[in-house]
Amino acid sequence: MERSLSSSSEEREKTVEAFGWAARNSSGHLSPFVFPRRETGAEEVRVKVLYCGICHSDLHCLKNEWHSSIYPLVPGHEIVGEVSEKGSKVSKFNLGDRVGVGCIVDSCRACESCRDDQENYCAKAVATYNGVHHDGTINYGGYSDHIVVDERYAVKIPHTLPLASAAPLLCAGISVYSPMKYFGLAGPDKHIGIVGLGGLGHIGVRFAKAFGTRVTVVSSTPGKCKDALETLGADGFLVSTDEDQMKAAMGTMDGIIDTVSASHSILPLIGLLKSNGKLVLLGANEKPFDLSAFSLIIGRKSVAGSGIGGMKETQEMIDFAAEHGVKAETEIISMDYVNTAMDRLAKGDVRYRFVIDIANTLASTRS
Amino acid sequence: MAKSPETEHPNKVFGWAARDKSGLLSPFNFSRRDNGENDVTVKILFCGVCHTDLHTIKNDWGYSYYPVVPGHEIVGIATKVGKNVTKFKEGDRVGVGVITGSCQSCESCDQDLENYCPQMSFTYNAIASDGTKNYGGYSENIVVDQRFVLRFPESLPSDSGAPLLCAGITVYSPMKYYGMTEAGKHLGVAGLGGLGHVAVKIGKAFGLKVTVISSSPAKEEEAISQLGADSFLVTTDPQKMKAAIGTMDYIIDTISAVHALYPLLGLLKVNGKLIALGLPAKPLELPMFPLVLGRKMVGGSDIGGMKETQEMLDFCAKHNITADIELIKMDEINTAMERLAKSDVKYRFVIDVANSLSPP
Lengths: 367, 360
Prior knowledge:
Chain B: Pathway: Aromatic compound metabolism; phenylpropanoid biosynthesis. The complex is a heterodimer. Chain A is built from 13 helices and 18 strands.
């Protein structure tokens, strides 16, 4: 399917004013920012942003940790809101529909990945923020009052899902849901480990339990045990720094979803796997891991990566979450709290996702 | 008082062993057990020289129990069979590979995956269930439980078939398990040594397009004309490597030294798999971004179970797949090891044991 061309210079001049918060440099400090957004194209919807989740990627990007940040930078790719305008060719949505926008807002639409509904693996996938639109303009994300997006890259949010706690599903949710399905780690006959109990980890526990999978949380923070078992419903909790516990659990897991982005050793995790077990890495770290070939050869184990999911799968994940009541545990904050929230996120001090109440707290920050 | 290698078992045997991590091999007198009711005694004709033999005699992995008699690519003739042995009779041509023991009762053993049994024991440099040490195929004969003996197909020559017992199964098993058998798909084979050259042949037999990935441009002509590879990619040619990005469905990585995974991962398509078979002494660096951005995977594999090893031998016999070998005498083994360390062999040394191992 070809996209309709909409990048004439005439159109580029027509913009709609948007208001949000941006960082101007790699200090990552956010502050009010007025900027232009394009007019709604024929196949696009304009979304009035109601809530936006804070993903750890936002923090990495604000601080330019991946050396590709373009400032001013408006982060945010866990966006939920309402359709306020739709293009003439839009068929998926109506005005007023509750929708979500996640990590990508475009792709080439023609490669094998795009044709397989895996737009996330398209070599030309365009990020919701800090990505470059096909007309050459920089994309600004969801820490703002509205966003314009092609309908292919938006999903419907059923009414049974409360919006604020649905926001983190757009990145954290799909990031754990996709590999559980793809690597065959969902179901009552499986035992998985989830490493790291943060934004991704906690939703991972909830999805896993909704699949009927047996889940053990692997964490370096013993204080999270009670929450893991009682609030999130995990079946077990392993303290990763406790050698005896880790040793006793060796060879017990069919798979592990590793959500930790900080540098850490994967050798003890590989040891937790049964024969034929799979370690799936989701966190993003520039520093490579040390991989002992022996650790994979003995027991025919593997290490793989996974990154979000395609649009079709993201919709499937949202619908599954609605049906099974899978929600994020959130701390809702006002827009002007965001810098404090980032400081706390850097220390892992959140249970388990900050969500910005854009609708009620953004406008008042405009002077 | 501890028994010596010569006296711990009733039957004297002669072979060659390494005594220390210099890896120097020399004549060695030891002994083997009587042929038990489940055992087959094999008079050894040929034994392949695997890179694992070199790693072990040099104690690269830190757990060599000297003296070490290496050798786990063994082809010979059954000279005795125990009364419970049903699969073989005296005079049969048989093979013995990398493992000669397992618990025979766990989940892995029940699934014919003896190679993944936690109590699996290696043909050499391992402790058998009776507490004695296992000695391998650089020797006159070996006594093995029938479960770990293979029927050698008639059409497979003993000398060039011997390396299949380790090199062959080591590449065949992951190709089956990781689904690398779809005709028309593109397989990269990194490293063109004992494992790599057999992987090319087996890959072609599965109908795959095969590209050899190597740092040695000199190997190109033979890779294509003799081994049947479709193309050859030199890792030190940045332009060619760039052009090949995202073109391979799978890679069998046989490189035995520490090497960079990043450029190899770049060659894989989305959802591509790299199977790491080499066992360097130090860890490899595993970069995250290529895995996450393309849902790529690095997997391991460890030889194969006995049933699968037999299946592999029969497959190779059917497709006329043998190793390309250089036949050597027993007393040439130290020179061969030096050459192997420099990858100076096309592509596997095989010791003509029967004709050159001269007991004192």
